[in-house]
Amino acid sequence: MRITSWNCRGLGGFWTIPQVKEMVHDRSPDLVFSSETKQTRYFVDAFLKKMFYNYMYVVDPVGLAGGLVVFWNDSSMILSVCSSECSIQMQMRDGDGDVWWYICVHISCDVRSSQFDYLV
């Protein structure tokens, strides 16, 4: 299974969308995690249609900061998903039938200690 993670610092930036599309085209990841999207679910849903992924899970930003999203395609089996403002946790079954957790985390400089307390 191929997974790509990227702190995009704003999913709506002029160069961001072409860079993400090129990365997806070159690497063909099964899962794409982006942190610091700074975009709402509505924007990310429109972005998903351009990315050729069928599913997504979005954590909306708080104001103009944060925001997380995971895109995945049909070959990935997601069993459960839960989240907080700084993480997305996904229980998955891979092609071999093994079950495992994929945990996506983005720690903000502003509220780092409270986010670490949540994760621990």
What features would you describe in this structure?
With 120 residues, the chain is of the alpha+beta class. The protein has a single domain, classed as Endonuclease/exonuclease/phosphatase (Deoxyribonuclease I, Chain A, 4-Layer Sandwich). Helices cover 26% and strands 34% of the residues. It is built from three helices and seven strands, in the order βαβαβββββα. The protein has helices at 16-27, 41-51, 112-119, and strands at residues 3-7, 31-35, 55-59, 68-72, 77-83, 87-93, 99-105. The chain has a four-stranded mixed sheet with strand order 1-2-4-3, covered by helices on one side. The protein has a three-stranded antiparallel sheet with strand order 5-6-7, with no helix packed on it. A hairpin with an 8-residue loop joins strand 3 (55-59) and strand 4. The longest helix has 12 residues, at 16-27. The radius of gyration is 14 Å and the shape is globular. The model has no long low-confidence stretch (mean pLDDT 82). InterPro entries: Endo/exonu/phosph_ase_sf. Keywords: Membrane, Transmembrane, Transmembrane helix. The chain crosses the membrane at residues 52-72.
